[in-house]
Amino acid sequence: MKKTPASAVHLALTLALGLAAATGAHAQDFPAGKPITIVVPFAAGGPTDRVARDLAEAMRKPLDGTSIVIDNAAGAGSTIGNAKVARARPDGYTLLLTHVGMATTPVLYRKLPYDYETDFEYLGMINDVPMTVIGKPQLEAGNFKELREWIAKNPGKTNLGNAGIGSASHLCGLLLQSELKAEMTTVPYKGTAPAIADLLGGQIDLLCDQTTNTTSQIEARKVKAYGVTTLKRLGTPALKDLPTLDESGLKNFQVTIWHGLYAPKGTPAPVLRKLNDALKVALKDPDFIRKEEGLGAVVVADRRVEPAEHRKFVQQEVARFGPVIKAAGVYAD
């Protein structure tokens, strides 16, 4: 067996130590006045985009005033933006902010250009956005119990709208049908706006969507509101009297559309710590909390702000949504 010369081994070790030292020095200097980009895998103006822009503003101060810009890389149910960050240089200057899709795309898509478990560093969870079950104004059912009875008497005739395959409303609708053991006709739309428009017009019967999209309609009494998908009632003025589905008989029914922050795999540990520390500061910022409450969102204040706990939570969500999506036979190419 041919031996490697001692000089070559010494050179290799020197280069490795030099590279490690350079990486460590770079990490200590982070963010070094260079702009940070948060990739949002959805179009500008939507709920996730608004969360990202509010968070960017709140994280600037704990990151020494560093400029944080938003890059909307929309398309293919968030997978384009997710893949963009998975392939980005792991230096902390390119981050991903996305929602529950991090846990549902691995089931919805037969093939992905990234692995949600191995291609990202988890930085922490940001918020929970509750969902509401709303109905067209003409529905006779006055509460969730009556709605449940009405659905049972009309198997297959209830039209349940959603904002498209893989959307928050689609996932909520799948869980609702699964828990009710009810047969409904699913009506997908290209976005929430047309779905709500048809609900108001009576073309569909029901919709389960985020409070960010439904609160104004509920407050104006333009729709029938049947329940909120949290285990506790919400404290917002417009929704504080709306019962939870749990208290209305659908025990332990809980679904929220959460958002999390991620970095490419291999980002140096000191950089990850700085980013996580900045995230924690941002989540306690009164102005950020006020803006999130205005969207109907609840800022996370539990262990899920820790990278390991957020990773564990996402794995639990994959296990939770997976069987429901597979049972429905819904897949995106």
UniProtKB/TrEMBL annotation:
It holds the Pfam family TctC. Keywords: Receptor, Signal. Residues 1-27 form the signal peptide. The lineage of its organism: Bacteria, Pseudomonadati, Pseudomonadota, Betaproteobacteria, Burkholderiales. It comes from Variovorax guangxiensis. This is Tripartite-type tricarboxylate transporter receptor subunit TctC. The keyword Protein biosynthesis does not apply. Belongs to the UPF0065 (bug) family. PANTHER family: BLR1237 PROTEIN, TRICARBOXYLATE-BINDING PROTEIN.
